[in-house]
Amino acid sequence: MHDGSGRIHVQGLSKSFGQLPAVQNLSFTAHPGMVTGFLGPNGAGKTTALRMILGLIQPTSGTATINGLPFAELSNPAGVVGAVLDAHGFHPSRTAHHHLRCYAAAMNVPDEQAERALDLVGLKIAANRKVGSFSLGMRQRLALATALMGDPQILVLDEPANGLDPEGIAWLREFLKAFAASGRTVLMSSHFLREIEHTVDRLVIVSHGCNVYDGYLDELRAEQSSRTLVQTPDPQQLTVEAQDAGFGVEYLPDGRLAVLGTDSQTVADLAAARGIALYGVQDERIDLEHLFFQLTHGQYSGAQPHGAWVPPVGPGQQPLPPPGQHGPTSSGGL
Ligand SMILES: Nc1ncnc2c1ncn2[C@@H]1O[C@H](COP(=O)(O)OP(=O)(O)OP(=O)(O)O)[C@@H](O)[C@H]1O
Q1: How far is it, in rounded angstroms, from Cα 236 to Cα 177?
Q2: What is the DSSP letter of 95?
Q3: Domains in the chain: ranges and CATH
Q4: What family does this belong to (predicted)?
Q5: 43 lines ligand 1 (CB under 6 A)
Q6: Is the CB of 128 under 6 A from ligand 1?
Q7: 103 and 116 in contact (C-beta within 8 Å)?
Q8: What ipTM describes this predicted complex?
Q9: Over its length of 334 residues, how does the chain's per-residue pLDDT go in tens digits?
Q10: 45 alpha carbon to ligand 1 midpoint, in Å?
């Protein structure tokens, strides 16, 4: 159990490469005891921001601190932060075990840490195989094992699910949740919301280098207007009752009613109390993927829906405001 002090704090962080503003005025905090997802389309600036947090590149302006200090000033960096930015670059003829023992020597930690780390990431069975024969998913696990060698307080992971099969993704999810539940901190990037939506507690969404959302995933869901879709032989009466109860109502082309801002139980209770028959009632699932597309204002090429959904913001129009108080944290535009 860690003491809960592992905190990453990013304040007004910016980085330009020549004329290109890769990261613009980025601010957020990754808290202990939580998995924070750092989400954005390709090229949104995630890796650049993570590299600044880890002291690998200098910001153009702003600060990134870990436990209140820039990474370079941490007295025991491997014991504070374990990072995976890239699952390549292993020596192909070294075994996984040999690779980790080299790290153990470099980090001045006991060799047993190598076995422990391999065990933690489920690679013990491949400990004596040469890394050159590893799949991308196995390399991801080995990279994670390397990051865990110092028994760090904080994990910083750039696209850790890349190359993992569904079983590997499920394993990673449980691993990271357990890591955070022990009072430690996870900051993980992804460009694919569905991949991390069951893993993260908080979300920082970036687009074109700027924050467009910073808050809890549950709040993001809750702030979206929800609808309950209802099939009834008496839509007019249900409309009157729903409106009297303060809910908006829309008529759908298929004959159903959409009752706005409530849930199926409330609508069913309302109908039952007034003796209105219902043939079907269903909460509309909030499609976070569409929401992500909306927030990133079309920068997210991977979220292009299958021809059915049209982004709510057209060229030249103002972007829709992000939800609630977690709205735009930068005026840099979506
Ligand atoms: N060293 C560099 N020199 C010049 N431009 C760079 C450099 N590193 C990143 N960039 C540019 O900065 C922008 C942000 O890149 P970055 O890799 O941080 O995005 P990302 O969100 O991590 O994307 P991806 O999901 O594709 O990895 C991109 O336009 C990229 O081409």
Answers
A1: 48
A2: B
A3: 8-221 (3.40.50.300), 225-283 (3.30.70.100)
A4: Belongs to the ABC transporter superfamily.
A5: yes
A6: no
A7: no
A8: 0.96
A9: 455 589 999 999 999 999 999 999 999 999 999 999 999 988 899 999 999 999 999 999 999 999 999 999 998 898 999 999 987 778 888 899 999 999 888 888 888 999 999 999 999 999 999 999 998 888 999 999 999 999 999 999 999 988 888 888 898 999 999 999 999 999 999 988 888 888 999 999 998 888 988 999 888 777 666 789 999 999 999 999 999 999 999 998 888 999 988 889 999 999 999 999 999 998 876 667 777 877 776 554 433 332 222 222 223 333 333 333 232 222 222 1
A10: 6
> Which H or E element spans position 145?
helix 136-148
**In the numeric block, which tokens belong to residue 267?**
């609508």
Q: Is the distance from the beta carbon of residue 42 to the nearest atom of ligand 1 less than 6 Å?
A: yes
Token pair belonging to 92: 């192909």
Catalogue the E-assigned strands of the chain.
8-17, 20-30, 34-39, 61-66, 81-84, 154-158, 185-190, 202-207, 210-216, 227-231, 249-251, 257-260, 280-283
Distance 190 CA to ligand 1 centre (A): 14
The pTM score is: 0.76
Distance CA 148, CA 117 (A): 6
- Which residue puts its alpha carbon closest to atom 4 of ligand 1? 17
Q: Which token pair is 297?
A: 């204002």
Residue 85 structure tokens? 């930015």
Residue 16 CA, ligand 1 centroid: distance in Å = 10
Residue 69's SS3 state is strand
